[in-house]
Amino acid sequence: MAFCSISSMFILLFSFTTLLWTAATSIQVHETDTSILLANDLISFGLLKTTSAIQNLTYQDVSLLGTVDGLTGQAYTDFPSNTFTTTGNSSYEIVTGSDWAGVVFTDNDTVGSTVQRSWFLHDSEPGIHSFVRLAYYNDTVTSKGELGESRTMFRPNGGPWTHIITNREQWAPLPGAAAVANEVVVQDATWYLGNTPDDPYVVAESDYFTKYQFADNQTNKAHGLFGHSPDNLTTLGAWWVVNQKDTFFGGPLHGDLMVDGIIYNKQSTNHGGAT
Ligand SMILES: *[C@@H]1O[C@H](CO)[C@@H](O)[C@H](O)[C@H]1NC(C)=O
Ligand SMILES: *[C@@H]1O[C@H](CO)[C@@H](O)[C@H](O)[C@H]1NC(C)=O
Ligand SMILES: *[C@@H]1O[C@H](CO)[C@@H](O)[C@H](O)[C@H]1NC(C)=O
Ligand SMILES: *[C@@H]1O[C@H](CO)[C@@H](O)[C@H](O)[C@H]1NC(C)=O
Ligand SMILES: *[C@@H]1O[C@H](CO)[C@@H](O)[C@H](O)[C@H]1NC(C)=O
Ligand SMILES: *[C@@H]1O[C@H](CO)[C@@H](O)[C@H](O)[C@H]1NC(C)=O
After folding, report:
1. Which residue among 3, 4, 67, 189 sits deepest, i.e. has the most Cβ atoms within 10 Å of its Cβ?
2. What's residue 275's pLDDT?
3. Could you tell me the residue range of the domain that residue 204 belongs to?
């Protein structure tokens, strides 16, 4: 039997710099025709049944992803190489325990592939646990070819975010609106921002912006976004905290994109020739 499987577990964690723990906690699960809504005392979100994407994510009533516009305003897993792919018609199973709830979305295609994306919420945590599992069972065509790209992305459309953080050393303000409006494309996914020399990003980081500048291996503890709450009374963070690094293709030292406004969790990509 041909079998190929990758799995990845990581936590999307939201935090105030000073976290106020409340003693009373609870989990709410509510299903509508199109969505499954999960909430605890700190965060709430909807999972779109057709795609498994997270939408309408709030942390203490602050919108963290903004409104959905195309693929933005969501957190989701996708497979740009289409080796594994979703069917547009995921089946789902809601699972619950005494202090947690989650949803497992499964897409089985007709040639032996399984794509599973799961999201879990614990009643006491300001974060979401995310799992990706890919498998292939086919005795006659034993290889699907290159795995290609598998990634989970926190892809806000607005929200409170002002800074991108790769690790303790590499972080910067996001380029402001004027910098983006006056940017000049210089090569693939790379812009010259020197037309706005006073922009906070240009002052702090560089005349050029590229997502590759914020790449790293998986030795960082967390990477993500930072900003002020709308009332400006406190600071907010959204962080990928990777639990298990061994199943990254290329291993725990594999270098890949971390954050550029989107927060990435790249389980497998061609970056670094790892697929
Ligand atoms: C998010 O909110 C919008 C607007 O209320 C709604 O149309 C959409 O169904 C919600 N998404 C989910 C996954 O619940
Ligand atoms: C999704 O699956 C259901 C149940 O098998 C089926 O009734 C429906 O037509 C499918 N929809 C699409 C878009 O394939
Ligand atoms: C998907 O395929 C796997 C592996 O063959 C199987 O165990 C599972 O029951 C299938 N799930 C669904 C929802 O069809
Ligand atoms: C194995 O893959 C081939 C080619 O994609 C397909 O025709 C066949 O149905 C698959 N077998 C199973 C058991 O899924
Ligand atoms: C991994 O990244 C860290 C932080 O950026 C760096 O210090 C370290 O040298 C890197 N290790 C390898 C093997 O690339
Ligand atoms: C929010 O507060 C920070 C420091 O606490 C300050 O630097 C910033 O200017 C404030 N922003 C607004 C929009 O008031």
Report:
1. 4
2. 60
3. 171-211
